[in-house]
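Quick one: Formate dehydrogenase, cytochrome b556(Fdo) subunit from Bradyrhizobium ivorense, structure tokens please.
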Amino acid sequence: MTRLARFVRLAIGASALLLLVTAAAPSMAQQVNPTASAVKEQQLLQELNRIQGRVSIPDQRSGVLEQPAGREWRKFRNVTLRWIGGIAIVGMLALLIIFYLSRGMVRLQSGRSGRTIVRFTSYERFVHWMTATCFIVLAISGLNVTFGRPLLLPLIGHEAFSAWSQWAKYAHNYLSFPFTIGVLLIFVMWIAGNIPNRVDVDWLKRGGGIVGHDHPPAYRFNAGQKAVYWIVVVGGLLVSATGYELMFPFYLSGIEGMQIAQMVHAIVAVLFVGVMLAHIYIGTIGMEGAFEAMGSGTVDVNWAREHHSLWLDEENARTDGARPQPSVTAAE
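--- reply ---
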């Protein structure tokens, strides 16, 4: 009888211990000690958020041994992003070459009149070129992060590539500040002329003067320029915000947040570069007289009449209204 009682007590104790271990298993699984001798690889991989040990220094972030989500981020950075960037940039270059070979430069059908009109002020051109210059340096230095190792490193060697990458990083960090200021100034400076309206719909339907030889009326900014404006503003603010989060780590988020910020930053940036290639094309070899608007600030009157006729009418009406009217004296 005594043996039976002992057996019952032992069975009850074992059952209670089993229930206790089972109830504590979920919390124990989330607190796996990676330094323990009995820990298994499968236990570590089951940690969904991160594999973290214990450290004695104040910075507890140093205890993170591995973050499994980092594998997905590394695959995006080394594989997916290169495909997205390659398709966006090389694809845009290919389209522009094909378009230029088939369409050529959009010429002034009426020729030059010899008279010019102010298109952009000195201040507007300064803001534009400051932002554009910063963007070009940011684009080149940023693309070096993604494509520099597989494309540039084999050509110039490790030592030259290391020096170039270091200076590119400095330029990328410091020029981000005037670029952000330029985007904000562009937003404030041209917001009034970039609100979509019904004229833009007709402009798009008629090909905007790029497809074919039609010249639909437009105000100071046509639908294509308005699209570029909003891409610059929205895209510029996105790359700026995510870039500053990466430049000043752990102030706004942890590792997971910075990985998401880097993915957004990279995707928006490569698409931004693709759009700006088309913008540069139209403003240089794509359209006769277009570069003069941001070069000298003036355009030929015939150019304004063909591409921005409604704006030219507004400028003429404003100028005529500002001219003093001749006084009439009654005859005696």
